[in-house]
Automatic annotation (TrEMBL):
GO molecular function: structural molecule activity
TM stretches of this protein: 7-27, 82-105, 112-136, 156-178
Pfam families given in the database record: PMP22_Claudin (PF00822)
Keywords: Cell junction, Cell membrane, Membrane, Tight junction, Transmembrane, Transmembrane helix
Membrane topology: Multi-pass membrane protein
Lineage: Eukaryota, Metazoa, Chordata, Craniata, Vertebrata
InterPro entries linked to this entry: Claudin, PMP22/EMP/MP20/Claudin
One GO CC term on file: plasma membrane
Main subcellular localisation: other
Subcellular location: Cell junction, Tight junction; Cell membrane
The family this protein is said to belong to: Belongs to the claudin family.
Protein name: Claudin-23
Domain of life: Eukaryota
Amino acid sequence: MRTPAPMIAGIVCTPIGMIFVFTALITPQWREGHIQLGKSPSIKHDGLWESCIKVVASDFKHCWPVSGAYQQDPSVLGARGLMLSSLSLCGVGIVLASIGIRCWMDFPLRNVAGASGIIIILSGCLSLTALGLYISKMQVLGTDLDTRYRGGTSLYFGWIGSSIEILGGMALSLSFSLPKCNICIGSRNKDKNSYKVNS
């Protein structure tokens, strides 16, 4: 059986989107703002797990695990949980898609592939929710309220990855409406044919 194009598109897009979302999760560029470090203008980056300061005029960069009020903020904790849940669901969806996209048995598992698409769409929606939650509270996270922050590159990775995941999930969900595999059904019926045995 030739794998239908929507299934191929879904199983290709989904891992790519997952890589982007994972990159967004682990990188410390969820927000960035200009600060004054002594006499040196610097840029501070905050992520879900790590914060960094980079001096503009040099290559000096120092990072440390997030702590204090920023770490305990419900928006940061919520974004962490949603992103981790998104990655877990996406992983489950990829496993189901790998099982369902081909005639592994006597008939195609179209419903399994379609269900994986629904799970992957939900995964993309969870990561988008995490991004929206963080952005809505970005200026008031932690105690550094005097610094004007803007969205960092990690957010862009998250948006791109979530969108690709949703597109991949939509492609896989089309498996519900794909025609049945005639070759597989024919093979199944052929196996059931009875033969006369000469005694």
